[in-house]
Amino acid sequence: MGRAHEVRAASMAKTAARKSKIYSRYGKEIYIAAKAGVPDPDMNLGLKRKIAEAKANQVPADVIKRAIEKAKGGSTETYNTIMYEGFGPKDATILVECMTDNPNRSITDVRTCFNKSHAKLGVGGSVSFNYESVGLVAFPANAEDEEKILEALIMAECDAKEIEMEDGYCTITTVPGDLYKCKEAIDELYPEVEYSTLELTMLPNEYTTLTDAEDLELWNRLLTLLDDVDDVQRVYHNVSMSE
């Protein structure tokens, strides 16, 4: 089972998750991107790209607009990104990315989630060394289009680490800096394309499967508790998601 399956499974999980969580995440990220430069996507490339990510995750236009207006209004809110690393049952590992204006609150909330799930927080680098930072793009495409897609990426000088054609989808893994170079190439090839995934993410080098009922219960409890923490932006892990 390749990364393409894991990407689609994660996308399905995002769809099933509370939409307000996704909206809040991108609201913060768009606000930060807008504050980092001119709050106009035509003049701020970072903001333009973050908006594209939000749209790929079905974030409504009014959520995007409110975040930009908040930045224009001179809000002084500041956020720091912090990554926590930890261990679940068996060989499960997890990275928890928080965006917070109060690091003490964040670590307290994350530690509580781990304690309630019999999981263990690790030190920096104890888990992340076994993950790879990549750009991910996934969109509907026919298997016979693979050569055409590969040619478009070569012409765009995009460093595509992997291309998978499976179940009517193309999933492209790129080096992080080439994510939007890849998007632009695909946009030109398929002007009406709708992405199911467009993001920078962390992928494990190896996946594991949890089969014990108690382990699965504790793991799902951890993911559910973390999802309820406002400061948690993203969770990356190496547990293979079932069909």
Key attributes of the depicted protein:
243 residues, Alpha-Beta Plaits, 3 domains, 8 helices, 23% strand, globular, alpha+beta, Arc Repressor Mutant, subunit A, four-stranded antiparallel sheet
Characterise the protein shown here.
The protein has helices at 3-16, 19-35, 45-56, 61-72, 103-116, 146-155, 179-189, 213-227; strands at 80-87, 93-100, 120-122, 131-140, 160-166, 169-174, 197-204, 232-237. It is of the alpha+beta class and 243 residues long. The protein has 3 domains: 3-72, Arc Repressor Mutant, subunit A; 80-129 and 205-237, 2-Layer Sandwich (Alpha-Beta Plaits), CATH 3.30.70; 132-204, 2-Layer Sandwich (Alpha-Beta Plaits), CATH 3.30.70.980. The longest helix has 17 residues, at 19-35. The N and C termini lie close together (10 Å).
Structure, briefly:
This protein is α+β, with helices and mostly antiparallel strands and 243 residues long. The protein contains eight helices and eight strands, in the order ααααββαββαββαβαβ.
